Fold this protein.
Amino acid sequence: MKRNRKHKIRIMCLLAIFCLGILFTGCGADSKEKETEVENAGQEITAADIKIPDSSSEQDITEEPGAENPTQENPVENTAQPEQPEAAADTASLYEQFLHNNLPAVVGRSFPQEDYRAPICEPNASYTLSELGARTADYFLDTTFTDRTTYDAIEYAYIGCPDNPGGDKKNLLVKFVGLDMYAPDDMSYAVFVLTETDGQLYITHEYECWARSAEEPYANGLLHSDGSGGAGDHFVGLSAILSDGSCTNIYFSEILHGWWTNYVDTDIYNEVFDENMEINLMVYIHTIGDTRYYQYDMSECTEEEKPLCETYIDKCRTQAGINWVTDDEIQAAIQNQCAALNIDYGLLQSYEKTVWTQL
């Protein structure tokens, strides 16, 4: 019994020593942590103390198989989001590279070669901005009546596409100002249309403006034109620069007054009117699509002129096959042309002008 009692006392003493050892060890660690906190208290935290993960470490975490990011509910969707505006950004980048003379543009198939005595741009050739400007100056500037050897300035603008008004696609207009087409210092200019297709820039159209001919581009991609071929011969028109960069007519109207109405039929005109007679008849020749439409206006004719004008109108109908139409028929034809081009007819009422920026 005494032996067992002594044995129990030994065991109890060992357990007590073991517990005290644990207690003192824990207290020592806690004391050290508290001492560290006291030492750090009041110290200023600098940028060096803040660890900012670099992009490579973030990428590694994102791409690690099976890894979870507690801050993202759907990491796959968030990773894909930056790719959405790529197409529009790439197109803008190509236009900017061209404007900075770092990228050439290829002459597209729709570029109107047949309208020129010699081509401004060779078919299938490619030009940087400076090369295009040099060809433009060489083509238009005539040293026989101007001392100018190059253009004055370059301007550019972006326009929408009327056949895709809700899309992000934009076409680029580049204007070379100061070409003396009609007279010295007339501030005439030439405008080139550029478009992007499958990562390639193309020069697709060109038009020029001078004292007797003007073209006004609108922000939606429509192009209004007006001008004069003489005192009694004026014209107005509306075209569309489409998403492929090509330019197509919606309508073109020639407005003839007095003697110029003989353009309808010269023989009948000379038969009805004395060649020295001045008349106030007006005739409109509208070209819409591939069809011509004719209208007349005798509101300014005198009572003496009206019978002769009526005879001329009637003979043009019966002998020359001219089909005189009403305003409603003209509007219906324009609406049909818009539908054929996939253009909303309502866009024709939008007159927001294009904003030009000088390089």
Observations:
- Confidence is low (pLDDT under 50) at residues 1-85.
